[in-house]
Amino acid sequence: MNIFPNHQRRINALAEILVATRQAKRLTTKQLVTRLGKPEVFVLDYESGKYRLDLPELVDIADAIGIDMVELINLYQQRA
Asked: Which residues lie below 8 Å from residue 75, measured CB to CB, with a gap of 6+?
């Protein structure tokens, strides 16, 4: 029994926002990987919704792509 039936949909919504924001800032995946100091598979997995980010990771990603956390949360609330 899934006690969080909307969980994957919400993970996917966040991933879509992060991808769209990265692309709007004209950052490639490789550039983001360099900024984060993480393996490329990390970015690919969270951007595809395969990996659920914790808060410190999300803050680091937001900083790396240049979006304020409040703005990111507002975008998320509009979609999720």
From this structure: 17, 21
pLDDT tens column, 26-56: 999 999 999 999 999 999 999 999 999 999 9
Kindly report the three-state secondary structure assignment for every residue of 42-67. HHHHHHCCCCCCCHHHHHHHHHHHCC
Distance between CA atoms of residues 49 and 13, nearest Å: 8
Q: Is the pLDDT of residue 1 over 70?
A: no
Q: Can you tell me the distance from the alpha carbon of 48 to that of 10, in angstroms, rounded to the nearest whole number? A: 12
